[in-house]
Amino acid sequence: MASESTAADPREEHPSEGFPDQEQDQPGLTAAMVPAPDHGEESYRGSGKLTGRRALITGGDSGIGRAVAIAFAREGADVAIAYMPEEQDDADSTLTSVRDAGATGAGFAGDLRDEAFATSIVDETVSALGGLDILVLNAAYQKDRESLEQLETAEFDRVFRTNLYAMIFTARAAMPHLNPGASIIVTSSVQAFNPSPGLIDYAMTKAAQVAFVKALAEELGPKGIRVNAVVPGPIWTPLIPATGWDADRLATFGQDTPLGRAGQPSELAGAYVYLASDDASFVSGAVLPVTGGKPL
Questions:
Q1: What per-residue confidence (pLDDT) applies to 132?
Q2: What is the spatial distance between Cα 106 and Cα 129, in angstroms, rounded to a whole number?
Q3: Which of 21, 52, 89, 251 has its CA 20 to 30 A from that of 276?
Q4: Are 238 and 65 in contact (CB under 8 A)?
Q5: What pTM does this model have?
Q6: Residue 26: its pLDDT value, please?
């Protein structure tokens, strides 16, 4: 008779019920979220996969960015994060977790839509950490849209400047500092492949990010630099209560995945560690879905 499996049931790793009605202004903050998201603070165990590496994570204060920062630090990397000034409390919490792991942590507050700031964080990371080996382009903005007809130009511009322009600014500035073995990881979205009408502008930017990753992987492969994307599905981060969805939408958030629930930021961290590590030495131009089973 076969022994009972010790593998966890992925449907039950985190609560499967919906989320209570709540609303935040952009950018959302972790402290106001109910329930609190899991970033791996208690669960992530490192094994030295990134020892000696230096990482910069945009949007590293909360959500997926915080989970990645914690995982990278526990894997032996020093970590710098960029974040909005309004997110200082979240950034402080993330940097405390990084430093508690024995890693050097650095934080840079500003608006990535500003080319000067989005560029300067690269030089500041190199100065603070002594170099740059991993660049995680994770910062993003989304908002629920009633219709294309009512999409204001200022909002459209904010989405594109946050999700695309800032990504280009920071990646371009990083190029002279990246040596063979370096890794660039972009946070795209399942919206790139299955766009929702209410997130039309956000989905457009996420599809463009996939094209960016594939093209840049071809350019940088001959230099020994890998470029990949992680594609999250519905993940419980501060971006969600700040999107502008009503109570019904929050109550069902993530329940349309085959696993029947939304994901937690902690469930993304391993994908970024893998892509940043030597375990993925032959992986470039890849689009890695972490979607609870939603197909791309």
A1: 98
A2: 8
A3: 89
A4: no
A5: 0.96
A6: 85
Distance from C-alpha of 116 to C-alpha of 123, rounded to nearest angstrom: 11
For 61, which DSSP code? T
Q: Which residues contact 211 (CB under 8 A, 6 or more apart)?
A: none
Out of 44, 83, 202, 272, the active site residue is 202
- 201 backbone dihedrals φ, ψ, rounded to 5°: -70, -40
Q: Is 107 exposed, middle or buried (0-12, 13-18, 19+ CB in 10 A)?
A: buried
Terminal alpha carbon distance of the chain: 38
What are the residues facing 54 on neighbouring strands? 78
Q: Is 202 an annotated catalytic residue?
A: yes
263, 233 in Cβ contact below 8 A?
yes
Q: At 260, which amino acid appears?
A: G
| Residue whose C-alpha is closest to residue 69's, from 33, 105, 37, 110 | 105
Number of residues that make up the chain? 296
Q: In the prediction, which pLDDT does 27 show? A: 86
Radius of gyration of the chain (CA): 18
Q: What tokens does 12 get?
A: 């039950």
The count of other CB atoms within 10 Å of the CB of residue 180 is 9
Strand partners of residue 82: 58, 108
Q: What's the one-letter identity of residue 192?
A: A
Q: Are 296 and 229 in contact (CB under 8 A)?
A: no
Distance CA 193, CA 170 (A): 25
